[in-house]
Amino acid sequence: MAVNGWILAATVCLGGGGAAALWGVTTGPPARRVVAQNMTTSALCPALLLLSQGYGRPAYVDLALLLALLGPVGTLVFARLLGDDLEGGRPSAWGLTWTAAGLSAVVVAAVCAATGPGRAMVKLLVVGALLIAGNVIASRALSGGFRGVRGG
Amino acid sequence: MSDAVIVVALLLTAASATAAVAQRDPARQALVLSVLGSVLAVLFTVLQAPDVGLSQLAVGAALTPLLIMLSVRKVRRRGRTHDAAAKDGAR
């Protein structure tokens, strides 16, 4: 089988992002752990998109859609219920957040360019928008931007 | 080439599962467990079982951490009121 660039990119994305998130989530103070848990979504979702393109199966985009939808929900659960532990140092990693958002945008644009216009492209754009919006919302909630989230 | 993806996903799954067991605090375990759920969903996708991956994603990424965190909060709260009652009784 010829070397598939999409799957190679997915491997790099999965290995790098997954390893970094795992290292962050197992070490350090609770604030950093929650940020790393939030990073999992933004690392694995582009990998899933690239995999679906690499395998040539558009149906696999559903997984990325569900992850983009449920990942921020999971992070908000932690932001809400870990409120006491997070009081010491509010985690704010805006550099990381915007890097992850940029990665998602680049991946979505590349996959969109490969699929061409149509319904599949609209779906990809929805996934990208959900991913970036969820990432930013979760980061704001973690850094204490929402008063409602804060009162645990 | 597709073997490399499977190897990476398997290694990540093994590492995160080991890390989840090695943590001492239940809240931190829940954090690692949510990472494990997402990685496991990717592993299922890589092994061409996206339907299993979908359900794993729904359960592992959001539902299991939610249940664990709710139980941890309830236990902590009960412990706190217990301590307060014990202090009052000692007086």
TrEMBL record, chain A:
Keyword Iron set for record: no
Main location: membrane
InterPro entries: MrpF/PhaF-like
GO molecular function annotation: monoatomic ion transmembrane transporter activity
Cellular compartments annotated: Cell membrane
Membrane-spanning intervals of the chain: 34-51, 63-83, 95-114, 121-142
Pfam families: MrpF_PhaF (PF04066)
Membrane topology: Multi-pass membrane protein
One of the record's GO cellular component terms: plasma membrane
Keywords associated with the record: Cell membrane, Membrane, Transmembrane, Transmembrane helix
Protein name per Swiss-Prot or TrEMBL: Multisubunit sodium/proton antiporter MrpF subunit
Protein species of origin: Streptomyces filipinensis
TrEMBL record, chain B:
GO cellular component, one term: plasma membrane
Signal peptide: 1-19
Main location: membrane
Coiled coil stretches, renumbered: none
Domain of life the protein comes from: Bacteria
One Pfam family per UniProt: MbhD
Key word rRNA-binding present: no
Protein localization: Cell membrane
UniProt topology in membrane: Multi-pass membrane protein
Membrane-crossing segments per the record: 29-47, 54-72
Annotated protein name in UniProt: MrpA C-terminal/MbhD domain-containing protein
